[in-house]
Amino acid sequence: MRIGLLVAVIAGFWLVAYADLDRARDRAIQDGLRQTVNLSILLEEDARRVIVVAGYSLRTMAESGRITAHLLSDAAGPPGADAGPGPALRTLLIVERDGRVRQAAGLDATASVAGTPLADAVRDGSAAFVGPYQTADGGWRAAMIRPLTDGSGVAAAVLDLDRFTRLYASQTIGPLSIILLYRENGAVLAYSRTGLRLDQDRAAFAAFLPRLPAGEAARTLSGFDPSEGRERIGTVRRVAGLPLYVYVRIRTDDVLAGWYNDRWKRVLETAAVSVVVTLLALLALRQLGRLETTTLALRASDRRSQALFDSSFQIMGLLSPDGRVLALNQPACALAGLPAEALVGHRAWEFRGWARTDELAAGFRQSIEKAAAGRFVRYETDVVTDGVTRVMDVTIKPVFDDRGAVTVLVVEARDITERVEAAARLAAALDQAEAANRAKSAFLATMSHELRTPLNAIIGFSDIMLHELFGPLGSPRYRDYARHVQNSGRHLLDLINDVLDMSKLEAGRYTLDESWQEPAAAIENCRALAAVPADAGGVLLAVDCAPGLPSLLADERALRQVLLNLLSNAVKFTPRGGRVTVSAVREEDGGIAISVRDTGIGIPAEALTRILEPFQQADSSIPGRFGGTGLGLSICRDLMSLHGGSLSIDSEPGRGTTAAIRFPATRVGPPVAAEGLPA
Fold it and tell me: Which pTM does this prediction carry?
């Protein structure tokens, strides 16, 4: 019985589909007929308008015996005759009886019509319609002839039949359909589709083309077309009461092209529905058998989910928005000290295992209320387990339904005691490191100050001995020893000064004594001091400063220290015969850039990343070959930072180094004239 009912339902689907397809086919045929009627009306009106305008032109020429001025101005087509793709009235002619052209206007003007299809009509001297005929260039024409009133000749209007062909070909009626313009004798004047026998013989379809009896203006046709052996529908219409017809013929296949597609689509849809209904019926029967199996599987899945829930080391629980316990895992029950049966259904903050004091219970309750309002809550709290206080990271996340209302709160708690203790140890270690750093800075400052006093005495007394202020030293070796003592003392003093400056900069106790400086003067002073070691090393020292540099707000001592350090390094690392150039320019942003460029040994690329750090040098062998501690560039960088500027180094091994210091525009004043006065 169930199978019979299923068969009846499917048969009903097919009957409904067949009825719908039959009605759709009838509608498509009627729509096609309406299309032929409407299109034939438009095309008949177009042809009628062309014939009427040509007749008007002929009447005017026949009465006047010439082509009047207003017709000459519209030689390619009188007003109203150029509808569609190009002019319809091709040429106007006044022709003598012997065929000579008295006057012509248009596109195909000739001196004589002798030897053309027009010649017989011209000799006859009566009104006639000539065509279709083909011109030497392959175009198709027709002509309307009217005798002149004075009998001296005829007036002729040549129609461009190719214009009608282009117009008909532009209509979208289907690849198998056709539009025809033809005479009463069946000679086709124009048609829309190429590739037919009409291309060679315009009278090829004369026996099949429909004609209308006198008094009938239009007729719709349907049925079999003997000219092509196919079903067709169409409309034939007489043009302006003349023996001319417009025939719009559409093959049934073109009309039903969309219906054919819809037919197969409907068949496939009906077949698909039938298959789906059959499958659904079978699936429904199978589903009943699987329902019990699915229920058992769901119960097993619920048990597995609960097992995963309980196996987590984190404390997890589900609460209702009002704070009642819905579900808990084993770690949560162990923390509360009660089984799950005693906890489910009660308020979460009522159990001391989770909130051991009234303050913690109140905080827990407030957190649950915030989460119930739709907020994500996270906080830290203390719990006591086995007599040990543990720090827990608690999160309460709301779960929303499709309407945006909170339905469940998910509570998770993680033991972060070790992380908190590690953070505390790290903070203590940082405090100790900062204290050690402050002690180091204080020690360096104190020792540097204490060492400078005896060093100044050593340098001073060795200078007295070198100049023999209190008498000769005796042996010449004593003078050499005194010079070595003085040089060593000065080297040690420079080292101590660098260490003292570095300790002040690290401790943040270096204070700038700012005043307006002239960059060119400062550079010249430093150049003079560096000239002696440059001459001794055979290095050319040059200055190239832009004229009219503005004044600079800077610490005079710090500026001199930076410039001398850069010049000293450039001279030190430039071999004999090299060159060191100091330049200063005003940059586009308004700041001042001072650069020291040398042709020395250069710095490897891997060393440029660390060269500005304290006690760092480009090569571990440099202290032994050139001396120094590696503090100079680091001090220069920090001094420029105090000025709000920067220090950059660009170098390539074997091609020299360029060190540039830049002061911001906020430290630049007005330009300085040559005499040292503001410009």
Answer: 0.40
